[in-house]
Amino acid sequence: MRLQRIDLHHTVEYGPSTYGDRVADVYDRMPQVLGRDVDRAVVALAELAGPGPVLELGIGTDRLALPLAARGLAVHGIDASEAIVKKLRVKPGGERIPVAIGNFADVAIDGQFPLIFVAFNTFFGLLSQEEQVRCFARVAEHLTPEGVFVLEAFVPDVTRFDRGQRLGVTHMGVDDVQLEASLHDPLTQRIRSLHVILSNDGDTQLYPVHIRYAWPSELDLMARLASLHLRTRWSDWDKSSFTATSRSHVSVYAIAAQRTAGDVISGGS
After folding, report:
1. Is CATH 2.20.25.570 the right assignment for the domain spanning 157-212?
2. What is the pLDDT of residues 133-142, one digit of tens each?
3. Cα Rg for the chain, rounded, in angstroms?
4. Domain limits, the chain
């Protein structure tokens, strides 16, 4: 087995673009990505978008923006990684999607949108509560009066960790295996993970990912601070009910003035 050389005396700082820069070449082939329900997500987002335009935070390569654009919607994006956006550019239609490079917490883009969304746990890539709160506030500034902010994320499960750590197999094929090694800090709600891919050709590939998770109720409070409220929450893109056993959620937030009798009042189901 041929291992990549690691300089133990050199510390690599993890920043907003690190994950995208490191994973760009393999992102679309990763089992976690291939297993996502893209079709239902696109249908649900298109219904919420109306005539558009649409803004995706953390657009990446992108599995959702391109199908939305194919439906005739004007799609814009923000991403911190130029490397991963280059992968979007080489896909059919990818060159026509305007993408701003930068930390999506700042929503540094002009205009207002009837739909702003962040999918596949990407919101948790903002590594502090301060950044996450700022993102909600900036999103609210860029929503049209009837617009919505859609956030897809997992529901935290700290029981996955034994004494603050986890080592598991996330994929096993005939010629390759993917492992995940993670450290959990419950005080900061941060998880530092390293995805390790071992293949039959002798290569070892390392892909770091750091996140700061938040429970649905905490996200709802962030929304309220930005004068947004929870309109509805699904367990998945199929619009199934969110329950105490749901492992993920799709939360739809709207400007507080839009509240109707049918809206969700708290962070529950």
Report:
1. yes
2. 999 999 999 9
3. 19
4. 28-156+214-258, 157-212
Q: Which CATH architecture has domain 28-156+214-258?
A: 3-Layer(aba) Sandwich (3.40)
pTM, to two decimals? 0.87
DSSP assignments along 79-110, one per residue: ES-HHHHHHHHTSTTGGGS-EEES-GGG----
CB neighbours of 53 closer than 8 A, spacing ≥ 6?
Answer: 73, 74, 75, 76, 111, 113, 114
Each residue's pLDDT tens digit, 73-123: 999 999 998 888 988 998 888 889 999 999 999 999 999 999 999 999 999
Residue with tokens 């803004």: 55
